[in-house]
Amino acid sequence: MTAPFIAVRHASYTYPGGRLALHDITLDLGPGEFVALVGRNGCGKSTFCRLLNGLLLPNPGVVTVAGIDTRSPGSELMVRSAVAMVFQVPDNQIVATVVEQDVAFGPENLGLPQEQLWRRVRDALELVGLWEQRERPPHLLSEGEKQRVAIAGALAMQPRCLVLDEATSMLDPAARKRVLEVAHLVNSQGTTVVWATHDMAEARQAQRIIALDHGRLAYDGSPAALFTDTALMARLGLLPPPAAQLAAALAARRPSFPRGLLYPEQVVQAVLEAPVASPGPLAS
Amino acid sequence: MSAAVKAAISIRNLSYTYMAGTPLATPALDGVSLRVNAGEIVALVGQAGAGKTTLLQVCDGLLRPPATGMVQVLGIDTAEPQALSRLRLRVGLLFQRAEAQLLERFVGDDIAFTPRQAGLPRDEVRERVRQAMQAVGLDFEEFKDRRTFNLSGGEMRKVALAGLLASRPELVLLDEPTAGLDPESRTSLLEVVRRLRDQGATIVIASSSMEDLPGLADRLIILNHGRVAAEVPGADVWRYGPLLRAQGLDLPELCSIVEHLADRGLDLQPRSLDPDGIAEAICRIWTS
């Protein structure tokens, strides 16, 4: 077990006005993990994300990032450069009128030397596949491209953790796939990724799923174990990815059908390999 | 389709350009012709920027009658004077970002807005609001006095949908209705759509995601760069994988499984495109 990069201890959060959004959450996020965060609309996902980089402070409870308490005075710069956030609507976080200047905005505030600053901008834009678009105004980009600009801006801070709060929910499937690929790429280079989503087909690609229910931690474990726990899934208001639903429907009809399949290719394979009464239809 | 079926929407050669005549002119629709029959559920699919939202807003009369082309909605030419006031109660549009169409401070008032504007009697308005809230799963007593803009994103979308239902429209236009909704809210929204159809409404859904559409829509109209690129029947959408992929769209996951099995020689012909329908079809082949 590696040391936790982010430690959340008995963290609760109540919004001004009295709504309790998170209640007594305790968990660790390790370096290099890819974690999906799921749960109903209003279950506390966004609040949880905001605790991770000190946009909101737990009360009561503690969140530490690389050992630093997010509540300690003066910790904001260190915490926010270590944990970068990308929001649902990219327009809300794009500030400049030229793509590369927007990406440079965060690291400029770190007071980096010019050469280092622009190398970071270039690396980030190349990683998200937008280097060619660097001189365009962001408002002329598609929503998916804007979201990748926002991610590039976050990456230019060279964060150790990238938190994406439903960053793909307003994107079309092609753009969504591209953004998810970028998240996996960043993760493969060692960055911790927290991916809040309603899309279980996205969540199944994570190593670990954290599910919230009415502000409480309801599940923390593998995608397969969550998706096959029908009672818990129902309580959380979640449905397994379509391929897993089909696999379950097949297993219910034929007990020998393998359990816990999550991906379309696995289901196709298992169907083709299942013994049949007549070999005719499988002859090809 | 027989000519006796009434058209809910009939569009001929419609083009629409934003900021036309300025250096910022952006063409959105380019020579679109299509027909939606009364009582149908039709999906408009296509990537972001394909023209789906523009088309819905033209049908709702939100965008002014076009310079070129003809748009008839519920038998009314949208270019006619008074067309909008005649259509206002009969056509309902759910915006992609629901919060953009909410305007009253309290939930009940927001849902009552259109029926009140139409001058319906007080009791009738109240009853409509109650029924509309019930249909979308918002408890009347719990939510009617809640502050609209303190709700969660999913709840706001339900309020917007209830507001649409309260005017009892014959034609319902939904712009990316499931984006950002959790699975439960998504399922219940799709239930509302089916119920509306059972009550005789015509429904047009714009969506960039194909996932919910095959079991729901009678037809899928594919838009690409402002043009109608193709039309696909909802029931066997999985037979059109190559065509959809050429348009930058993906088959829904279950349809892709049916397609892959067909490619490997297992032609399932499922009765429905949900997990149970497909599982049954696979079991039929196993035991045949």
Describe the overall structure.
The complex is a heterodimer of chains A (284) and B (288). Chain A has 284 residues and is of the alpha/beta class. Chain A folds into two domains: 32-38 and 73-239, P-loop containing nucleotide triphosphate hydrolases (Rossmann fold); 241-274, no CATH class. Helices cover 37% and strands 20% of the residues of chain A. Chain A contains eleven helices and ten strands. In chain A, strand 4 (62-65) and strand 5 form a beta hairpin. In chain A, helix 3 (99-108) packs parallel to helix 5 (143-155). Mean pLDDT of chain A is 90; it is low at 278-284. Chain B is α/β, with parallel strands linked by helices and 288 residues long. Chain B has a six-stranded mixed sheet, with helices on both faces. Chain B has a four-stranded antiparallel sheet with strand order 2-1-4-5. In chain B, strand 1 and strand 2 (26-37) form a beta hairpin. In chain B, helix 3 (107-117) crosses helix 4, helix 3 (107-117) packs parallel to helix 6 (153-166) and helix 4 (122-135) crosses helix 6 (153-166). Chain B starts with 6 loop residues before the first strand and ends with a helix. The model of chain B has no long low-confidence stretch (mean pLDDT 89). Classes of the chains: A alpha/beta (284), B alpha/beta (288). At the A-B interface, helix 6, helix 10 and helix 11 of A face helix 6, helix 7, helix 9 and helix 10 of B.
Q: TL;DR?
A:
Chain A has 284 residues and is α/β, with parallel strands linked by helices. Chain A has eleven helices and ten strands. Chain B is built from ten helices and ten strands.
Share in β-strands of chain B: 15-25%
How many E strands of chain A? 10
**Shape verdict of chain A:** globular
Strand order of the largest sheet of chain A: 6-7-8-3-9-10
Query: Spans of chain A with pLDDT under 50 lasting ≥5 residues?
Result: 278-284
The sequence of SSEs of chain B as H and E is: EEEHEEHEHHHHEHEEEHHH
> What is the straight-line distance between the termini of chain A?
48 Å
- Please identify, by name, the CATH architecture of the largest domain in chain A: 3-Layer(aba) Sandwich
Q: What can be said about the biggest beta sheet of chain A?
A: 6 strands, mixed
Instruction: Let me know the CATH homologous superfamily of the largest domain in chain A.
Output: P-loop containing nucleotide triphosphate hydrolases
Q: What is the level 1 CATH name of the largest domain in chain A?
A: Alpha Beta
Class of secondary structure makeup of chain B = alpha/beta
List the total number of helices of chain A: 11
What integer value in Å does the Rg of chain A equal? 21 Å
Please tally the helical runs of chain B, counting DSSP H or I stretches of 4 or more residues.
10
What's the SSE pattern of chain A? EEEHEEHEHHHEHEHEEHHHH
